[in-house]
């Protein structure tokens, strides 16, 4: 007897380099949404997506309709699984979560353009941070702080449990900030301006079992040389004042000064 395939087929590039693909993967995995997946080399994108857009979902029940763009994909998943809290149930927190997610999706260009995604890499030394990137780092830390403070107040007023994610329980918002959180580790971006609430959220993400499992996948991908994207590795090559290495898989996040 043939096994029925999940309704969703997910296609993207290898997640250790792809912030867009890893966002969707985090949502699918955290909420245990049934799906099949296919990760491809960056050089092979045009063979599966003539437009060059990845990631995308194929929805089998909609005749193989393709949904592109990580935010559009996550909205589709939320609509398709109303029983799951992909967005907060509370209307106020849901609005704030959508606002924060949209800011990450369309903004913070200095951080994204200066510090490409490489989940495993470890840069030390004189990593350059432009004035604009520094401003965005402070804005990012402030956004996380504001989200957590407002969420704690709102959930306390509602008498509901706060799970410690940006807007209470894990949501699309946390998935969207996961890749940029890892950039703080990869490039040693400063977090001295982070509040206790922001640091607690960072620790929550790094220590979550789902993200530990996803991180393990990144290391497994790295064992296959076919997944390597050379121009994303050692992006400061040739500079003697910057060292390039790789974090061990058993690395743990620790709050500075504690």
From TrEMBL:
Positions of the GST N-terminal domain: 1-85
One MF term in the entry's GO annotations: maleylacetoacetate isomerase activity
GO biological process: glutathione metabolic process; L-phenylalanine catabolic process
Keywords from the UniProt entry: Transferase
Pfam families, A to Z: GST_C_2, GST_N_2
InterPro entries: Glutathione-S-Trfase_C_sf, Glutathione_S-Trfase, Glutathione_S-Trfase_N, Thioredoxin-like_sf
Name the record gives this protein: Putative glutathione S transferase
Lineage summary: Eukaryota, Fungi, Dikarya, Ascomycota, Pezizomycotina
């Amino acid at each position: 007897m043939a096994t029925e395939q999940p309704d969703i087929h997910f296609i993207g590039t290898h997640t250790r380099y792809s912030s867009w693909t890893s966002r969707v993967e985090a949502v699918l995995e955290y909420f245990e949404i049934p799906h099949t997946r296919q990760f491809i080399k960056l050089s092979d994108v045009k063979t599966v997506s003539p437009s060059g857009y990845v990631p995308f979902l194929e929805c089998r029940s909609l005749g193989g309709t393709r949904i592109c763009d990580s935010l559009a994909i996550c909205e589709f998943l939320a609509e398709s699984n109303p029983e799951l809290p992909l967005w907060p149930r509370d209307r106020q927190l849901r609005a704030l979560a959508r606002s924060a997610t949209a800011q990450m999706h369309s903004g913070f260009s200095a951080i994204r353009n200066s510090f490409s995604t490489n989940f495993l890499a470890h840069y030390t030394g004189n990593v350059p941070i432009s004035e604009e990137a520094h401003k965005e780092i402070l804005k990012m830390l402030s956004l996380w702080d504001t989200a957590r403070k407002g969420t704690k107040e709102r959930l306390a007023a509602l008498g509901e449990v706060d799970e410690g994610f940006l807007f209470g329980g894990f949501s699309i918002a946390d998935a969207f900030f996961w890749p940029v959180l890892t950039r703080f580790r990869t490039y040693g971006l400063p977090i001295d301006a982070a509040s206790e609430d922001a640091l607690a959220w960072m620790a929550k993400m790094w220590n979550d079992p789902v993200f530990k499992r996803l991180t393990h996948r990144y290391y497994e991908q790295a064992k296959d040389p076919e997944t390597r994207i050379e121009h994303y590795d050692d992006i400061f090559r040739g500079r003697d004042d910057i060292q390039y290495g790789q974090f061990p898989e058993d690395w743990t996040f620790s709050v500075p000064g504690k």
